[in-house]
């Protein structure tokens, strides 16, 4: 920017210098002509008249030069104002560009920090989900083990109760002299389910009772049959 201003100002000074040299050349020729005319005429009035005319022309020329200088000064002022406005516009343009660059850099940094924070939150959620999943898996494993142990104990208890019932039922069956089977018991001595039995245990007991009942009914049908002789 400074180089451009110096260049424009140098061009302006060159023009002023050329104009000055031109004026000096005009003054030189004017003096030479005046000298020649004076030496060529011995008549003083004529010389005076010639001198007055030369001075008049010289004054007119000086006025013309002053007018030109004034015009050049105004033009120089316009050029300086134009250069100044161009400098201001260039500075304003660079300022706006710098502001835009700063805004872009700030936006990029903000986006980077935002992505970084989102990754941090994502990792936090993954760790939290992992902990929750481990807790659920442990709880399910514990419940499964408890259910397995409870089911095993219930099945064993049912088996023991049904075995005792079978022994009791068999002890009530007698063989009569006529070869018939007699049972003093009835179906009221079946195993009575307690209230705290689970659905699974109740189903197993009911199935076994149904099997025993079928066997007893079958044996009742044989009471009137004779035992074959040995």
TrEMBL record:
Pfam families: CCDC50_N. InterPro entries: CCDC50, CCDC50_N. Residues 4-119 form the Coiled-coil domain. Keywords: Coiled coil. Residues 93-146 form a coiled coil. It comes from the Eukaryota. This is Coiled-coil domain-containing protein. It comes from Acanthosepion pharaonis (Pharaoh cuttlefish).
């Amino acid at each position: 920017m400074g180089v451009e201003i110096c260049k424009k100002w140098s061009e302006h000074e060159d023009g002023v210098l050329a104009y000055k040299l031109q004026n000096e050349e005009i003054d030189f020729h004017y003096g030479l002509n005046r000298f020649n005319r004076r030496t060529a005429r011995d008549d003083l009035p004529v010389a005076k008249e010639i001198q007055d005319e030369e001075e008049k022309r010289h004054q007119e020329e000086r006025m013309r030069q002053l007018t030109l200088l004034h015009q050049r000064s105004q033009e120089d002022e316009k050029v300086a104002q134009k250069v100044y406005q161009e400098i201001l516009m260039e500075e304003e343009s660079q300022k706006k560009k710098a502001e835009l660059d700063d805004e872009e850099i700030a936006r990029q940094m903000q986006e980077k920090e935002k992505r970084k924070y989102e990754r941090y939150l994502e990792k936090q959620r993954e760790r939290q989900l992992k902990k929750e999943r481990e807790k659920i898996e442990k709880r399910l494993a514990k419940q499964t083990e408890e259910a397995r142990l409870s089911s095993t104990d219930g099945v064993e208890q049912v088996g023991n109760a049904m075995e005792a019932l079978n022994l009791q039922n068999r002890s009530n069956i007698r063989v009569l002299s006529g070869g018939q089977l007699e049972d003093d018991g009835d179906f009221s001595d079946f195993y009575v389910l307690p209230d705290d039995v689970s659905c699974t245990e109740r189903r197993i007991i009911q199935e076994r009772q149904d099997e025993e009942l079928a066997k007893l009914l079958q044996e009742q049908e044989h009471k009137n049959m004779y035992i074959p002789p040995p």
